């Protein structure tokens, strides 16, 4: 029986604000053989740009991902003032975990230029952008070099939600930080998959998950154990969760295997003028699923397969 040749790994650029769950996204992207992590860019979000950039370099050093360009991006949103999530991620942006001092140097380019250079250096349809923080860098890249909009394969972002908010009753943090940037990204015309809170609030790092990671007993598994512990404590104290939702690797998991995240085509807009609803993502789920729509929303997660991927990634680095 003929078997189809395995397709080559998906080339991605990860734009992140590490952040406990961003660190797990970096881990999954670096370790999974179905992903070719081309570059990492940072964006102020969970903490200031300076702090999240230091965290990104430290995490990549710990993971042994030392041969890819890392560039720092925007210090603030397009229009609105800086907002950080110190209540959840702490003063450092990665409180409660031990990080090595960075063993890699920052690329001299601005993140916006590294995004453009990476997309333009590859064939059309080759590079997928995976933003897991506020969308400022991605929006500016699309404005600075509109040719990337045609050229990227898709944008798979963690942010937003159809039925849930976390930073406000109806708005998710990444979108609320820079709603104007999110509006640019949703409207650009490229394919966008919004992996939002409806999906990521199912990715709970339960004690069973922590035990599976702990069994691997390696520097990387201890690091992930610390992450889950610290993130869990913050989520319990601040948001009343029994276990922390590990948001950002859900977007990477979708790129690895789209069957892990159930999606539906739907028009997507961002509320920019709301009295109480600024930053809300509005998904048009009325009527039959449209066929001509370039945006999709995540509506479900295969929880077991998701954690299998994360645990497998830790095992590969252990
Ligand atoms: C998580 C985040 C911000 C605030 C809270 N309360 C929790 C970060 C995560 O890194 C993720 O990318 C997204 N923003 C979830 O809202
Ligand atoms: Ca994040």
* Unique bound compounds: 2-(4-amino-phenyl)-5-hydroxymethyl-pyrrolidine-3,4-diol, calcium ion
What is the rounded Rg?
A: 18 Å
How many domains in all?
1
Shape: globular
Query: Please, how many helices?
Result: 13
Total strands: the figure is 10
Spans of at least 5 consecutive residues whose pLDDT stays below 50 are none
Q: Give the overall average pLDDT.
A: 97
Strand order of the largest sheet: 3-2-1-4-5-6-10-7
Q: What's the CATH class label?
A: Alpha Beta
Query: What name does the CATH topology carry?
Result: Inosine-uridine Nucleoside N-ribohydrolase, Chain A
Largest sheet: 8 strands, mixed
H/E topology pattern: EHEHEHHEHHEHHEHHHHEEEEH
Instruction: Give the full name of the CATH homologous superfamily.
Output: Ribonucleoside hydrolase-like
Task: Write the CATH architecture name.
Answer: Alpha-Beta Complex
Beta-strand content: 15-25%
Question: How much helicity do the residues have?
Answer: 25-40%
Q: Which structural class best describes the helix and strand composition?
A: alpha/beta
Distance between the termini: 36 Å
């Amino acid at each position: 029986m003929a078997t189809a040749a395995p397709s080559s790994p998906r080339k991605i650029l990860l734009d992140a604000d590490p952040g406990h769950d961003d660190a797990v996204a970096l881990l999954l992207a670096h370790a999974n053989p179905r992903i070719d992590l081309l570059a990492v860019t940072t964006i102020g979000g969970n903490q200031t740009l300076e702090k999240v950039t230091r965290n990104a370099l430290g995490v990549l050093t710990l993971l042994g991902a030392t041969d890819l360009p890392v560039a720092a991006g925007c210090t603030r949103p397009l229009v609105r003032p800086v907002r950080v999530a110190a209540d959840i991620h702490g003063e450092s942006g990665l409180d409660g975990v031990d990080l090595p001092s960075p063993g890699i140097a920052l690329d001299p380019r601005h993140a916006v230029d590294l995004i453009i250079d990476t997309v333009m250096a590859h064939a059309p349809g080759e590079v997928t952008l995976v933003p897991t923080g506020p969308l400022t860098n991605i929006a500016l890249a699309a404005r600075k070099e509109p040719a990337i909009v045609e050229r990227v394969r898709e944008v798979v972002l963690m942010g937003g939600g159809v039925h849930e908010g976390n930073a406000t009753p109806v708005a998710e943090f990444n979108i609320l930080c820079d709603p104007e940037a999110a509006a640019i990204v949703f409207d650009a015309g490229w394919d966008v998959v919004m992996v939002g809170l409806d999906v990521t609030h199912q990715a709970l790092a339960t004690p069973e998950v922590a035990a599976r990671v702990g069994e691997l007993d390696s520097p990387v598994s201890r690091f992930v154990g610390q992450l889950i512990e610290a993130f869990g404590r913050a989520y319990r104290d601040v948001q009343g969760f029994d276990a922390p939702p590990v948001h950002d690797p859900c977007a990477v998991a979708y790129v690895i295997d789209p069957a892990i995240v159930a999606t539906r085509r739907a028009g997507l807009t961002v509320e920019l003028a709301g009295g109480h609803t600024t930053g809300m993502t509005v998904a048009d789920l009325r009527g039959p699923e449209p066929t001509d729509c370039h945006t999709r929303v995540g509506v479900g997660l295969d929880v077991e397969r998701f954690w299998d991927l994360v645990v497998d990634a830790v095992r590969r680095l252990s």
